[in-house]
Backbone:
């Protein structure tokens, strides 16, 4: 059956040879780039990890005993964690909503297909996204502490501003990928620019927006744990108190509380997504 | 060897208490080109997908060249699927790969993991892929990305991929509904020709009755999961049409 369809012709042979040659070249160049990447990784590991580590101090035993200190949960800290956990959840929620609120106009500016003033506003929008993401949340927190003083407000503002970059980038990219069909339809019925946005684009990107905000909320719960550094309260403050006391069991307990909070958030977001999307 | 390629007996499918196929039976000989017609939601697509178990039937029997498909394990099913080519409504090509790689994908059932990983297809597979691409008229498009082709060309890639399996049965799911009428006739003609050349029986869902009459040797009419008609195109009279499409007439 195959033999009948495969007539040994020199022309066919030449074509196969050409394909085989090309595939070999592709494979070789891929392998070469893989080798280069591997060499870079190994080189980097050698330069910044192997040379930089104090190997004399590092034994299996020292690592094990240090880690074991965290395993002794300090359950006495538990009752005092309920209120801070609620504070943390509320802070993360507020920061995420504020972040979304700020991200919407940034996404509008930074989406190539709907940006209002062409290249200028596009570059401005993308610049805001990069600015938000390139500054660490702790640095944002220090900036806002100097602006509004120590406390929860500085922490929320820092997390919100840090959230803008990721949320707006994902939304802008979703806007750039929308199906043109619905937009064409709204234009065809004589819709205004706002109507095109509201009927043609928003329904298409809404699932992405909600999914991203929920994901960012999860990240903000973790971020809020280090916002204790600027006196932002919540679990972060407890974490820093336990750290200051070198109470490793207490640190582990706070971290377990953070984990529990994120698991609860995971359930909430699962059902929220199902309900809304 | 018997003259029956595919034997479907009392095939049932559905989920929950919703029955999609109700005791459908028919037999296909090696030279047959079966069309399955019927209104939307009649279970045409489910019927085809039950044959290679992309949809799990809830009862009955499907025998390909005498071998039962329904009660076999995952590994045996994979081996059985290698012998069943499938052509899809939306072509289901891997858009970012070249036309050639898409056709070679038809050999994946016979290609080991290492070879697949580095796309090291055998020389005879590449030869067969090129020959098939010549056969379906895509000689000049071998190295293009699949997403650069027109609808008719993409379906030709789909046909070549299915033939690459050297299948003993072709399942064809609405091959023309994404194509314009002229191209649709070309594609149906091509499927009929290549199936005849290789004596591959064909089971083809098609909502366009005219195309079914013009290109197929047998017709099955489904309505609401029940077989309402089976016969030659010439036997499909007014009454049979009414039986099949009665719900829509009402």
Residues:
């Amino acid at each position: 059956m195959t033999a009948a369809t495969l007539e040994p012709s020199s022309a066919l042979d030449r074509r196969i040879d050409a394909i085989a040659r090309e595939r070999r070249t592709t494979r070789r160049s891929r392998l070469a780039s893989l080798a280069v990447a591997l060499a870079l990784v190994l080189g980097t590991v050698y330069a910044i990890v192997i040379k930089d580590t104090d190997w004399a101090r590092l034994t299996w035993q020292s690592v094990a005993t240090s880690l074991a200190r965290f395993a002794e949960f300090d359950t006495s800290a538990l009752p005092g964690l309920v209120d801070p956990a609620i504070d943390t959840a509320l802070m993360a929620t507020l920061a995420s909503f504020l972040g979304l609120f700020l991200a919407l106009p940034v996404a509008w500016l930074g989406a190539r297909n709907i940006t209002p003033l062409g290249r200028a506003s596009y570059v401005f929008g993308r610049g805001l996204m990069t600015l938000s993401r390139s500054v660490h949340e702790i640095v944002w927190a220090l900036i806002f502490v100097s602006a509004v003083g120590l406390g929860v407000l500085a922490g929320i503002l820092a997390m919100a501003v840090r959230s803008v970059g990721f949320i707006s980038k994902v939304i802008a990219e979703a806007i750039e990928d929308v199906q043109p069909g619905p937009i064409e339809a709204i234009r065809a019925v004589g819709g205004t620019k706002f109507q095109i946005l509201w009927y043609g684009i928003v329904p298409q990107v809404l699932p992405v927006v909600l999914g991203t905000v929920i994901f960012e909320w999860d990240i903000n719960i973790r971020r809020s744990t280090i916002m204790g550094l600027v006196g932002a309260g919540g679990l972060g403050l407890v974490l820093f108190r336990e750290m200051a006391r070198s109470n490793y069991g207490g640190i582990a307990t706070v971290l377990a509380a953070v984990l529990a909070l994120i698991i609860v958030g995971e359930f909430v977001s699962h059902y929220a997504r199902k309900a809304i999307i | 060897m018997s003259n029956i390629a595919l034997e479907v007996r009392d095939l049932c499918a559905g989920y929950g208490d919703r029955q999609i196929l109700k005791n459908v039976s028919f037999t296909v000989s090696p030279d047959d080109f079966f069309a399955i017609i019927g209104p939307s939601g009649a279970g045409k697509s489910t019927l085809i997908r039950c044959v290679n178990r992309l949809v799990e039937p809830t009862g009955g029997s499907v025998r390909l060249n005498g071998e039962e498909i329904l009660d076999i394990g995952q590994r045996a099913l994979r081996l059985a699927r290698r012998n069943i080519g499938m052509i899809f409504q939306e072509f289901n090509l891997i858009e970012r790969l070249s036309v050639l790689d898409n056709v070679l994908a038809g050999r994946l059932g016979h290609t080991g993991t290492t070879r697949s990983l580095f796309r090291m297809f055998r020389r005879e597979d590449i030869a067969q892929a090129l020959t098939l691409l010549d056969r379906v008229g895509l000689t000049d498009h071998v190295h293009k990305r699949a997403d650069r082709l027109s609808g008719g060309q993409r379906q030709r890639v789909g046909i070549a991929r299915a033939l690459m399996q050297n299948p003993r049965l072709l399942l064809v799911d609405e091959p023309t509904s994404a194509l314009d009428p002229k191209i649709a006739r070309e594609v149906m003609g091509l499927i009929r020709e290549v199936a005849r050349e290789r004596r591959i029986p064909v089971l083809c869902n098609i909502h366009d009755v005219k195309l079914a009459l013009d290109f197929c040797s047998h017709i099955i009419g489904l309505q609401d999961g029940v077989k309402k008609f089976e016969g030659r195109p010439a036997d499909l009279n007014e009454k049979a049409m009414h039986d099949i499409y009665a719900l829509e007439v009402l």
About this structure: Chain A is about 80% helix and 0% strand. The CA atoms of residues 132 and 162 of chain A lie 5 Å apart.
